[in-house]
Amino acid sequence: MAQDLPPQGGYEPRNLPARGYRPGYYLLGMFAIMGYGWYKYIKGVRELNELGREKMWSRIHLIPMLQAENDRDQVRRYWADQDREQELMGKKTKIYHSDRFVRPTYSITPTNISK
Question: Are 70 and 80 a contacting pair, CB within 8 Å?
Answer without folding.
Answer: no
